């Protein structure tokens, strides 16, 4: 029972807007998860029924949210003016509890964390791995599955990049130098560049694409 004392982190909505958005996010997660399952098991009628039900619930929840607060996507419903840029971006700390919201400067953590973006086992490599390998999959189910996972990994890239940005954005040049980030600042300023914790830039040699579906999937499992 190694996990008997495990407690799960819960997002507590700060207002009705967040509550409604959390509902959309939960339904979206369910739809995407069922989508991945159906990519490989398209004839499962029970799961397909659940997929349609969650999809309908998500559509209704999205309509209600957009009616009250504005569009969730660029194709969403807008009123009499352009409101797409009014909502916070994921890296905006003002966005509330569902956004990346780091208030404390920590350059040491940023230096370690950026390897999860551009390092050998980082999210960028994962996204490119699945995206590139999908073209060699023998059927549409495999192609769709790997494409969906690649899209998910790009979302992880944005999370990590947002965290590094917030950890470093208020740092002085002297602080960056003391943290061993002086060379990084010289080349990239406070931009987010894909490197590992040692400063080695991202390279496509971090992942393999053999053209053999079995070999590629085994490589995926090893990477995961």
Walk me through the structure.
56% of the residues lie in helices and 0% in strands. By secondary structure, it is mainly alpha-helical. Helix 5 runs antiparallel to helix 6 and helix 5 (123-133) packs antiparallel against helix 9.
Return residue spans where pLDDT drops below 50 for at least 5 consecutive residues: none
N- to C-terminal distance:
24 Å
Radius of gyration: 20 Å
Helices and strands, in N-to-C order? Answer: HHHHHHHHH
Tell me the structural class: mainly alpha
Number of strands: 0
Number of helices: 9
Q: What does the main sheet amount to?
A: none
Kindly report the average pLDDT value.
Answer: 88
Strand content is under 5%
Percent helix among the residues?
55-70%
Query: Quick one: overall form?
Result: globular
List keywords for this structure.
mainly alpha; 224 residues; single chain
Q: What is this entry, summarized?
A:
The protein has nine helices and no strands.
